[in-house]
Amino acid sequence: MRGKAILFLIFILLAGFIAKAQNQEILIKEIRQEYTLIHQQLSVLDTVQKDLEGSSEGSSVTGFYKSGKLLAMKATYYGETGYITTEYYLENGNPFFILRQEHRYNRPMYYDKKAAQENNDPEAFDSQKTTVKEDRFYMHNQILIRWINSSSVQVAQSSSEYKDKAQELLTETASLQSQLDN
C-alpha cells in the first residue's frame, strides 16, 4: 500500500513538471511570434534616438513607436575593441524578449597595417574577422523564463547568475525607457 502511495506521488510530481514545461514552451512560441511581428515592422515605426553616456566610443538608444506606444528599443554601445547591441521588445512597457549581441574585433579598430608592423604583429584590424556572441532572454510578467547564453546553452533557472540577470535586465529596460522619455 505504501509503495502505491509513493508511486502515485511521483506520478503527480512528474505530471506537474511536464505541464509546466509544456506551458513554458507555449509561452516561448508566443514570445517568438510577437517578436517576429514587431521586428518586421521596425522600418516603418516612428523612432526617437538619444545619445547615452558610458561608452568610450559613443552609445545611443533608439525607441520604436506605433501610435505613441513604445514597442521596442535598441541600445548600442561602441568601444575600441567591439560593440554591443541590445534589442528590447516590449508589451505594455515590460520586456518580453531581449536579444544581446556582442561584436568583438580581432584587433582594436584603430590598429591598422602600420600599427601592426610597428608592433611586429602579422594581423591588423579586419572587420571581416569580427566575432559575434548572442544571448537571448525570454520574459513573462517581468520574470525571466528562459535564457539562452552565447554558447547556445540554456542557463539553469536555479543559478545565482540567472536570478541576477533577471533583475539586471529589468533595471536596464527601465533606465533606457527613462532616457527616451527625457
Give an account of the 3D structure.
With 182 residues, the chain is an alpha+beta fold. It has one domain. Helices cover 37% and strands 35% of the residues. It has three helices and seven strands, in the order H-E-E-E-E-E-H-E-E-H. It has helices at residues 2-41, 113-118, 160-181, and strands spanning 46-52, 59-66, 69-79, 82-91, 94-104, 131-140, 143-148. Strands 1-2-3-4-5-6-7 form a seven-stranded antiparallel beta sheet, sandwiched between helices. The longest helix has 40 residues, at 2-41. The model is unreliable at 8-19 (pLDDT under 50).
Characteristic key phrases:
alpha+beta; 182 residues; DUF4468 domain-containing protein; 3 helices; 7-stranded antiparallel β-sheet
Alpha carbon gap, first and last residue? 68 Å
Strand-residue proportion: 25-35%
Structural class: alpha+beta
How many β-strands, per DSSP? 7
Helix count, DSSP H or I runs of 4 or more residues: 3
Helix content: 25-40%
| Mean pLDDT level | 87
Strand order of the largest sheet: 1-2-3-4-5-6-7
Low-confidence stretches: 8-19
- Overall radius of gyration: 22 Å
Order of helices and strands: HEEEEEHEEH
**Quaternary organisation of the protein chains:** single chain
Main sheet summary: 7 strands, antiparallel
Overall, the morphology is globular
The structural domain count equals: 1
Short description:
With 182 residues, the protein is α+β, with helices and mostly antiparallel strands.
